[in-house]
Amino acid sequence: MVFDCAVIGGGVMGSAIALRLAQAGQKVVVLEKSIPGAEASSAAGGILGPQIEGDHDDPLFRLCLASRDAYGPLALELIERAGIDVGHRRSGLLLVKYAGEDVGPLDARLAWQRAAGLEVERLDGDQARSLEPALSPEVAAALHFPNEARLEPRKLAQALALAAQRAGAAFRKGIVRGVAVEDGKIAGVDLDDGRLPAGAVVVAAGAWTSKVAGTGLAADVVRPVRGQMTELHHPELVLERVVFTSRGYLVPRGGGTVVTGSTMEEAGYEKKVTAAGLSRILANAVAAAPLLGSAEVVSSWSGLRPCPKDGLPVIGAGAVPGLYVASGHHRNGILLVPETARLLAAAVLAGRDPEELAPFSPLRFAR
Questions:
Q1: Mutual orientation of helices 12-23 and 337-350 as an angle, nearest 10°?
Q2: All domains of the chain, ordered by start, with CATH?
Q3: 96 has which bridge partners?
Q4: Dihedral (C-alpha) 128, 70, 47, 273: value to the nearest 10 degrees?
Q5: CB 231 within 8 A of CB 154
Q6: Where does the signal sequence lie (predicted)?
Q7: Contact yes or no for 190/122 (Cβ under 8 A)
Q8: Rounded to an integer, what is the distance from CA 189 to the centroid of its chain?
Q9: CA distances from 271 to 33, 203, 229, 277, 308 (A)
Q10: Chain-centre distance of CA 313, in angstroms?
């Protein structure tokens, strides 16, 4: 069977792209070496926070804003199509500073985001604790971003894969050897057990993108950056908003459970959880919400973020006709799923990139 499109990578990005292509009538197959969504997709915190991640108003920031705002409709669609509630909540987010910390960065972020027409509020410590009483008495200042949101990445991965399958996309396990090219154009994907013919190929392999032979991307275009996480539970903890400090973050899951993280480590493809990493994460959690000092450590894990060479994601048509890339989203992988899927699917269907993808084109790395 010849597929219209083969998607390499069954994480949230690959599954979402497959869903949109299948809905457009394409014969799509998703190639995954393990359970769909088992890598960085499931290891993420689930923060939908362009206003906390962005440093200035630019095309990436606007893409992130649009994607955050697309999650409400997507979450409802996934309930309808997959029967899974991904836990999407427009809960808001607090960026806090402790007594003695420099508040200059808060004021700078407040200024440029207000100039960009975004909703953000400056709070003192008491005002922050009036919103989240669990916060430390050492919190002296904060920014409140009421439109930031959160969800549960593991449920998102499950829902997208199931919705894509129900829309007609096939999922297949296998070891990808590389992209197959014949007569100067895409011919499919070479697997360990032979070639899978396809008219187009989307490489959405996360931190492993540069390891896929035939993409034309150098090994350093997308590299892995390890992030360690832990889940804590305290039955008396009440926390609604995501909380960021200068050292990490807390993401509420309800019922006294929070996910806290994260490290940023150049550790190659090593995914182990370390004592040093966990000690930093736990220290930040307890400093932000002292009640967590007596919380149960439920679990810990790590994931590999796909970090792009120049700080921008790699999305769009590659150097070979029929080749497309959706990778390098780094800390914004979950956040950028809706817009990446929409725009990349449009590129595959039209045979050319939408204008919005120009800043993120893989061709900037063409060799």
A1: 50
A2: 3-83+153-221+309-365 (3.50.50.60), 93-146+223-304 (3.30.9.10)
A3: 142
A4: 180
A5: no
A6: none
A7: no
A8: 25
A9: 16, 22, 11, 12, 19
A10: 11
pTM summary value: 0.96
Q: Which of 357, 363, 322, 361 is nearest to 343 (CA)?
A: 357
- How far, in Å, CA of 137 to CA of 326, rounded? 43
| Rounded Cα–Cα distance for residues 314 and 337 (Å) | 13
Q: Left (φ > 0), alpha (ψ -120 to 50) or beta: where does 339 sit?
A: alpha
**Cβ-contact 41, 153 below 8 angstroms:** yes
- Sequence length of the chain is 367
